[in-house]
Amino acid sequence: MTFYTSSSLYTTHAIPNGIPVRMEEKPKNKMIFLDVTPSRTPKPASPNAVVPMKNNLIDPHIYKDIVYENIKPVFTVLRLMGVLPLTRPSPGVNQFKIASPSVVYSLILYIALISYVLYLSLHKVQILRTAEGKFEEAVIEYLFTVYLFPMLVVPIIWYETKKIAGVLNGWVDFEVAYKDLSGRALSIKLYKKALIIAVIIPILSTGSVIVTHITMVHFKAMQIIPYVFLEILTYILGGYWYLLCETLSVCANVVAEDFQQALRHVGPAGKVAEYRALWLRLSKLARDTGLANSYSFTFVNLYLFLIITLSIYGLLSQISEGFGIKDIGLALTAVCSIFLLFFICDEAHYASQNVRTNFQKKLLMVELSWMNTDAQTEVNMFLRATEMNPSQISLGGFFDVNRTLFKSLLTTMVTYLVVLLQFQISIPDESHSWESHDNELVSNATSSVTETTTTTVMTTIMTTLAKRKKKN
């Protein structure tokens, strides 16, 4: 092997890795490929082009709060109905100001609607005063007045709007804390469900009121507008409650999965402490959700209880005569109200279970033998925090919203139905009363005739005896 000794054959530049490069081995025409897209001439933007919205997964700063954006269709319906006068001066900031266009709009709409409802209710009371019929018919008549009760819930929601705004701002803080901890935005994906609820509920509620108008005799066409509004309000509040509880459930599952992934690393003492702080935020949001809607949903639950009781009683009172066309509206109202009441109780129960039970299961299944002392202490503190911080959704401390509440309401409902049916049975029917009255008149006439005949016979006998005595 021949070696080159002349320094002219080697490069004068720095020798990479200490190995000289021979000039003869270098290719004369070396081709270089660049994996770079050639620059293009920018085209002017079309006026019809759609500008993409900022993505929370790319933008390091949260552009819009994800929870509000997911529930936005239902919030929009509530704001259009004048029920939720919420003000958003900027994305992620929710406020309630008395001197705001939202409050003025809600007040004007409510005054106009309440004036119309008062006129109809006074007209309805006059009908009830002149009604003469059976007890169950009077109860069914009063049911139309009970349908107007949700008008009282609108000022209650105005009073609680400030608390609702605080809960939404708390969700923004939770999103920021989650993004700082996990490095990605919170994924909820409830927008499609919210959009379906915001579109389907007004359609179904309007159809239900129209069916009731067709089947009921005393339900006039001029009463359709307020009843449609109140029907939509009742069921859209149920959809709003479902979305709040579903958001809690989804976030609890997401944080639980991330926490399980964090426990797979060695020595996760710091991570366990951060997830404990994040869970405490989520547990506080679950409690605040119930406190912010305590008075409004207490009223909604009691209203549904009353509607279900009266509707089922109206159906049961017609069993002897058979079901007719007028009972379709009562049956539809009873079924929908029972479904909504169960839905409210079940969703709150499911959210509470996800927020608390899921994390307790994750913590109880942790293998502590391979962890250091600090990590074991943090896990034990996390488990103690789940025990000491209740995550039940309570309506202002009056009662917890869960499946037990639904069972209690059904039990009470059955009791009231039995009392109403017994009261109906104890009232005599008009036909029976007229028959008894006729029988009483016949018996009185018979007894009077008998007494008259007896008196005549006795008088004749005494006269005959007196004549015989005179002859003797």
Characterize the structure shown.
- This protein starts with 65 loop residues before the first helix and ends with a helix.
- The chain has twelve helices and two strands.
- A two-stranded antiparallel sheet has the order 1-2.
- The protein has one domain.
- Strand 1 and strand 2 form a beta hairpin.
- By secondary structure, it is mainly alpha-helical.
- It is found in: Cell membrane.
Describe how the helices and strands are arranged.
Elements: H1 66-80, E1 87-90, E2 93-95, H2 101-130, H3 135-146, H4 153-182, H5 191-215, H6 224-262, H7 269-292, H8 294-316, H9 327-364, H10 373-388, H11 403-426, H12 430-471
Antiparallel strand pairs: 1-2
